[in-house]
């Protein structure tokens, strides 16, 4: 693969100017409450990207309350006590009334078979009326509208297994608006329209998982592969958990995980670090310091044999194959990344060339080296999508043959060099954008305690040898460490014994 001259030049500069040169544009500071800021100056254009990283995700959902971390993504831009309401004092009274009715409804439900059905129906109607009244005070979409009217773009949020992100871009002369709005959400959060958004999340699950064969298969695959660690739960949550989430659950989660020391904020663009620090102290210092939450303590037990699962569906066949792997802090993490680039990602990848291009038995074949998250041990995931008239068995046979060659034959120097160049080019593309860089800086600090990990990752990949690739492939890609799940046509589920070599 030949990179454009400009990209080669950028890659050279990235290496030659080294970390010390880049660091001259980066300023860090931590408020007394523990909230950490990373500011990177880029004055080429009068814009700024702002990224808030909360070190909590679906893996932190309490038992019986899965989907709770994801709810905050839906609540992110609902506003504050002064933004998003037509009358906050009245809205507050109405929101409290909702919870009182809901408490009475839950008390009656908790009686189980002794619950009074007539009373349940009456309380259910009261609850709907109370929710409607509270929602009547909402000034719809005012929070995002203020941002858009100020030139903001890219307003969004995302929830992963290990994190929750909030981000958007503004003209640099409007950056104080972000400080005002973002601090308001953390100092005095208002979870308005919580139950309306809970219904939205429930419908999202219905569309993306229950009505989507691939989503359903992924859920079955993950819960089969991972039995003890909370990675085995779906990030969106189980249906019954979502349906029973309460606003008080959200408040408890917020108070535990949305503490200043568990949040990293990165600001990249046309800004002055001293000004950013002044605004940070003005707007965020009022958040009280609270203890950091404890990490997940459950350890996934060793897998002692291959596991399989099937899901009936008349749709396009697909198979997921996963191998247990250590977390992102392991010494072999960079080697897993190299293996992923060798096997998957573009037309030079081994799986694409063998299964898609040459044999023409697959529509797609690829990998995800860190599934479903990286903070804790997880899986190295592969997927196979057979072509028309081709079977999963054919694809499996070819797939395992590629894995066997990876284990037995050293990767040639040209292929290894191409992968390392690709990794560097990927980083450069992310660094080229303010928003991409803001995300990298926040992720690096939150996960490793140092934003410089963004650069040392590439250096770690450069150190990976062909021997490392063989060693890791043989150590982890074995039958006893494997879980596979696939879609099968209805009424044709039969025992299946496909596998690779140890």
Overview of the molecule:
- The chain is of the alpha+beta class and 502 residues long.
- The protein has two domains: 25-85 and 138-284, Metalloenzyme, LuxS/M16 peptidase-like (Cytochrome Bc1 Complex, Chain A, domain 1), CATH 3.30.830; 307-488, Cytochrome Bc1 Complex, Chain A, domain 1, CATH 3.30.830.10.
- The chain contains 18 helices and eleven strands.
- It has a six-stranded mixed sheet, with helices on both faces.
Instruction: Give the oligomeric state.
Output: single chain
Integer count of domains = 2
Name of the CATH class of the largest domain? Alpha Beta
Low-confidence stretches: 1-17
Give the SSE order as H and E letters: HEEEHHHHEEHHHHHEHEEHHEEHHHHHE
Portion of residues within helices: 40-55%
Rg: 25 Å
